[in-house]
Amino acid sequence: RESILSSHFISTMKFFAVSILLLLAIPLTAQQPVQNGTIVHTATNDHHVSPQLGRDLWFTMIQNYDDQGGKYYNLYVTSTSNTNVHVALYGQAEKILIVQSGSVATFNIPLAWEMKTSAIVENKAIHVWSDDADISAYLMSHNPYSSDGMYIIPTIGWGMQYVVAAYSALYVYDYPSEMAIVANQDNTVCTVTPSCHIRVESAPHACKTCVAHPKGIPFTEILNKGQSIQYLSLTTADAEHYD
Q1: Structural contact between residues 118 and 232, judged by C-beta atoms closer than 8 angstroms
Q2: For residue 201, what are the β-bridge partners?
Q3: How high does pLDDT run on average in the chain?
Q4: Kind of pairing, strands 95-99 and 83-89?
Q5: Which of 136, 128, 56 is nearest to 94 (CA)?
Q6: Mean pLDDT of 157-186
Q7: Rounded CA gap, 242 and 239, in Å?
Q8: Cα dist. 153→24, 150, 197, 231 in Å?
């Protein structure tokens, strides 16, 4: 026992002595010339960041659930400058939103502008623009059992290749996953490789089992300015085979 205590005492004294030496060494070290540190080079990937502001925006209203009481689509527009913002379903009369600097203007979009078909080209691209100021726009879709939000990327931030992350289909009630494409130029050729079967249907007639495009096989669509197309996944019979 005495040996253990003695060893502990000696170890403590050594630690104390080392601590004193370290404390004494601090001011001496600070006065020494500073050596150059090792130069470290870090390589990073340049990621594309979509712009928050622009003067030309296009989008379409992907179908949100069923038509229920209280359903609405609201467009929210803001700007750092006073400006008039134009909103129009392409080819139709435009609406004017007066946007004050730093404030948000709201436009309630007619439900008739909502996409309700699958694999059918429609003239339902919505154009939002300002002639003299950069703007930022967001879409809010509300339903009693489904609310969705979307940031609208200005056309200056558009790319040529996309991967769609779709919400999984509800197979029991046949609420499919969905996506849409919008064109702001004539003769826009799009190649799509679906990860599931895509149905074809036109509202109000539904075809749950009509395959327009089988999964894994690329196909092309040609859209003109102001056109859009929505794709719905095929209905499923069980919980194992759905998008």
Answers
A1: yes
A2: 118
A3: 84
A4: antiparallel
A5: 128
A6: 91
A7: 7
A8: 61, 9, 28, 20
Question: pLDDT at residue 180 above 80?
Answer: yes
Helix (H, G, I), strand (E, B) or coil at 147: strand
Question: What are the structure tokens assigned to 149, written together?
Answer: 């939000």
The full DSSP string for 150-212 is EEE-BGGG--S-----PPPPBTTTTB--EEEEE-SSTTEEEEE--SS-EE-BBTTB--SS-EE
Chain center to CA of 237:
30
Q: Are 171 and 235 in contact (CB under 8 A)?
A: yes
Which residue carries 């134009």 as its tokens? 86
Strands of 101-164, DSSP E: 104-109, 121-122, 126-130, 135-143, 146-152
206 C-beta neighbours (distance < 10 Å), count: 14
Q: Under 8 Å CB-to-CB from 67, ≥6 apart: which residues? A: 111
Q: DSSP characters for 19-34?
A: HHHHHHHHHHHHTSPP
* Residue 228, token pair as written in the block: 């859009």
Instruction: Write down the pTM of the prediction.
Output: 0.78
User: What per-residue confidence (pLDDT) applies to 35?
Assistant: 52
